[in-house]
Specification:
0% strand, 3 helices, mainly alpha
Length: 74
């Protein structure tokens, strides 16, 4: 079960840059990160903390992916 959850979380993290604009990529990253973090957090006993951390990581990764796609990051 933990392996499946970890695989799902990593998949969501890699897909966090979906969207066409900076805002949509950051928002989709936030949502997917929160979902993945909540999943992981529920396994460790703290859903809220996991969701909050996941949302932060997802937002940053969505933004960084957008900047990479625009050529601002090598």
């Amino acid at each position: 079960m933990r392996t499946l959850t970890l695989f799902m979380a990593l998949s969501l993290f890699l897909l966090s840059g979906c969207g066409g604009t900076t805002t949509t990529r950051a928002l989709s990253g936030t949502g997917m990160g929160a979902a993945a973090g909540g999943l992981i957090g529920s396994l460790t006993g703290d859903f809220g903390k996991g969701a909050a951390i996941g949302a932060g990581v997802g937002a940053v990764s969505g933004y960084l992916y957008d900047q990479y796609e625009k050529g601002n990051i090598d």
